Amino acid sequence: MSSITPPPGWGAAPQPSVDGSTPSWGAPQHQPDVWVYAGFWWRVWAFLIDGIILTTVEGVLSLFFGPKINVDWEELPIPDGSGQTVDVVNIAATSLPQAHPVSILVPHLHAGSDWHTFGIVLSLLPMLYFVLFEASSFRATPGKRLFRMEVVSLTGERISHLRALLRFVIKAFLSFPLFYIGVLMVAFTQRKQGLHDMIAGTLVLRHTKPTQIVPFTPHD
Q1: DSSP assignment of 43-98, as one string?
Q2: Are the beta carbons of 202 and 152 closer than 8 angstroms?
Q3: Torsion on CA atoms 12, 18, 19, 20, rounded to nearest 10
Q4: Where residue 106 falls among pLDDT bands split at 50, 70, 90?
């Protein structure tokens, strides 16, 4: 049974020196960079921040570029007790005390033919947001950057747009819809990977600069 190779610094044994001898604990030694995986709640807070940003952007776009909505009112007369129909206009024009309101107004909203195009743009906005940011030099969305997180490949490199797109599609159509199981996996996997991370081959790290393992001298 093959074992998963841990990332640099994750359970790595002290490296032998040039002459083949293993340095003592007290001796200074070069250690690989330590990868700190982003935990479940850190990623939840980052996702909430990204959700607020996306909602704000969508609201602004809808306000300035959304289709115009027209309201048409249709009057539906209802038979009264006498078997006749009395509409709103007739009620307003008569002063008969026996006249009672027996009509209703039903609104009909018309968004125009450009509503479908605008709806497609709004549905594609989250995909563009996550894919472009995570595949950029930032390696993260603004929410993740706020909490010092990065989305990288299994070797710690910047991911491509294709990998970022695959990660988003799996997250949108599998991780979230299936009772959030693919998202909850982050809390139980060794490298804090969700289902979308495992399929796309990505990791979410939380650090600003690589840290070093600090050796210590054990006491007797």
Answers
A1: HHHHHHHHHHHHHHHHHHHHHHHSPP-EEEEEEEE-B-TTS-B--HHHHHH---TT
A2: yes
A3: 20
A4: confident
Evaluate if residue 218 carries a pLDDT over 90: no
For 152, the token pair is: 């990288």
Q: Of how many residues is the chain composed?
A: 220
Report residue 23 as tokens.
């340095």
Q: Where are the domains of the chain?
A: 36-52+112-206
CA angle 115, 118, 121 (to 5 degrees): 155
pLDDT one-digit tens code per residue, 49-68: 999 999 999 989 888 877 66
* Matching residue, tokens 């599609």: 169
pLDDT higher at 106 or 26: 106
pTM for the structure as a whole: 0.66
